[in-house]
């Protein structure tokens, strides 16, 4: 009897282990399908994973991120909330939910999620970047720029942070600071066409028409259709 009971226990343990592995395998398959933009297959994989492991926080998080990409914002929020109910300190879920809240223009709530990430991981560059965008949408340019300062301090090659800081500096009236940052963007990434457009726009608005047109010509040479249109309007 004891041997039989032990055998049954081992069978149950093996079955449980297989179920856990299978849930993980479904999740990994979902990650691959998501990277290939096969969202339907990824969501099907995640449904299978969650059927086996209803407490699989990473599966809920990935579901939420995929549904965000598909524009299913309410469903995405529900799934990210589930992930965070299971794991309140889940940084990826906090980041995803913060981005989603910002998309829904609930900027104050988004900032709270990014605040939480920074409390957990003070060097989380993207949290500073994302929080800056939310703050800027509330017209808090000074604080937004301070966050972008942090992002650049922790990753000096974070080109999107340089570009964003240039834009918000220009919006806040710091033309020279904006110009320096735009120049840094194209130094780091000469193909960053939006930076050329931003730089030329700032120059033109501050009566540097000749320089603006030269920058637009460079952007046009790099394939910017918008630059070509602006040259026709401003530089003839």
Topology:
Blueprint: H1 2-35, H2 39-52, H3 57-69, H4 73-86, H5 91-103, H6 107-120, H7 125-137, H8 141-154, H9 159-171, H10 175-188, H11 193-205, H12 209-221, H13 225-234
Helix pairs in contact: 1-2, 1-3, 2-3, 3-4, 3-5, 4-5, 5-6, 5-7, 6-7, 7-8, 8-9, 9-10, 10-11, 11-12, 12-13
Please provide a written account of the structure.
The chain is mainly α and 236 residues long. It has a domain at 156-236: Serine Threonine Protein Phosphatase 5, Tetratricopeptide repeat (Alpha Horseshoe), CATH 1.25.40. The protein contains 13 helices and no strands. Helix 2 runs antiparallel to helix 3. It is elongated, with a radius of gyration of 24 Å. The model is unreliable at 13-19 (pLDDT under 50).
Shape: elongated
Number of strands: 0
Q: What is the helix content?
A: over 70%
The fraction of residues assigned to DSSP E strands is under 5%
**pLDDT under 50 segments (min length 5)?**
13-19
Descriptors:
single chain; mainly alpha; Serine Threonine Protein Phosphatase 5, Tetratricopeptide repeat; 13 helices; 81% helix
Summarize the structure.
The protein is mainly alpha-helical and 236 residues long. The protein has 13 helices and no strands.
């Amino acid at each position: 009897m004891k041997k039989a009971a032990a055998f049954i226990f081992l069978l149950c343990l093996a079955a449980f282990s297989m179920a856990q592995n299978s849930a993980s395998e479904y999740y990994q398959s979902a990650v691959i399908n998501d990277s290939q933009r096969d969202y339907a297959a990824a969501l099907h994989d995640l449904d299978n994973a969650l059927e086996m492991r209803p407490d699989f926080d990473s599966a809920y998080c990935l579901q939420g991120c995929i549904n965000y990409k598909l524009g299913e914002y309410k469903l995405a929020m529900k799934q990210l909330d589930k992930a965070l109910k299971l794991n309140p300190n889940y940084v990826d879920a906090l980041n995803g939910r913060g981005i989603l809240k910002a998309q829904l223009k609930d900027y104050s709530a988004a900032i709270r999620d990014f605040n939480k990430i920074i409390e957990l991981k003070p060097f989380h560059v993207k949290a500073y970047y994302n929080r800056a965008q939310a703050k800027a949408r509330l017209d808090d340019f000074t604080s937004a720029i301070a966050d972008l300062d942090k992002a650049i301090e922790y990753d000096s090659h974070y080109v999107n942070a340089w570009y964003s800081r240039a834009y918000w500096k220009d919006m806040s009236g710091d033309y020279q600071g904006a110009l320096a940052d735009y120049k840094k963007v194209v130094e780091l990434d000469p193909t960053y066409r939006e930076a050329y457009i931003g730089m030329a726009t700032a120059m033109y608005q501050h009566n540097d028409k000749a320089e603006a047109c030269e920058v637009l010509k460079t952007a046009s040479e790099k394939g910017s259709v918008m630059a070509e249109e602006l040259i026709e309007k401003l530089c003839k």
